[in-house]
Amino acid sequence: MVPQRRVTRFMIRKVRDDRSSRRRDTLAVEEPMEIRLNLPGPTGERREHSLSVTMRTPGDDFELAVGFLYTEGVIESAADVEEVTYCMGTEKAEQAYNVVSVKLRAGIHFDPELLQRNFYTTSSCGVCGKTSLEAIETRRCPILPKGHPLMDMRTVHALNEQLHGDQSVFQATGGIHAAGLFNASGELMGLREDVGRHNAVDKVIGEKLLAGELPLTDSLMMVSGRASFEIMQKALVAGVPMVAAVGAPSSLAVDLAREFGMTLLGFVRNGRYNIYAGGARIASDVAADANVGESLASE
Fold first, then answer.
1. Under 8 Å CB-to-CB from 134, ≥6 apart: which residues?
2. Which residues are CB-neighbours of 148 under 8 A, at least 6 positions away?
3. Most buried pick, 54, 73, 246, 255, via CB within 10 A?
């Protein structure tokens, strides 16, 4: 089988001012991965159904698949998964790592007709089609503890530098996203990288799911790039009460955070950050700042 590669190198021409030179450049690998469900039939027979195709950086594929199934409500726990394997029936050897089959245990009742939701993810937009907060309210999400965890503002300032420092593939390529889980002391508890923000989140949640460590009610999730509705939804399902992003949140991400009592921080970099929701979880020297996330109204 062809080994997985997370990075690859290209010969490029680098231009600086009026001069140019040929250089080797390292880029993050992007490959499609199909997620298939191996489901028990009504009479005991097994059938495989294609569920999703996502563009991702190879590596941690089983965690990505399981994390995706969990955050999308297909499975409720790691106990629902009997086996995760690569599909060895692909015609080309180089595609063997690009098809992951998840075998659900007997007794799981899942209607294959639901597969007609036509899941499709890309490295830029993630899973599309979620347009309302009401869809989340039907999920059995963990109850988030109020005011917990409590994180010092100086710890928040250090998150981006620590996340960036532990991104091995980013150091080589400069072109990949990351999701990291931190405890209240700012200690990094897990990190995954991928060309897709949503894939990185699914990977780090899948890792903790398989380790039996959900819900993650003592954690903060830091993501590179912006905070979208989908990322907040995935964090909520995993019981993550705090989300910090290097970039800006979307309006719907803020609505979700305020609706479900989450803390949402944006522009966490260069010694600054904005509190969009849940400010009571940030220990501040200025008491008036503690609840700024709840007091601001949308304009």
1. none
2. 217, 218, 241, 281
3. 54
- Find the catalytic residue in 87, 125, 128, 141: 125
Domain architecture of the chain: domains with CATH: 31-129 (3.10.20.10), 151-295 (3.40.140.10)
Q: What is the pTM of this model?
A: 0.79
Residue that has been written with the tokens 């993630």 in this structure: 126
User: Cα–Cα distances in Å, from 67 out to 4, 83, 100?
Assistant: 20, 14, 13
87 is catalytic: no
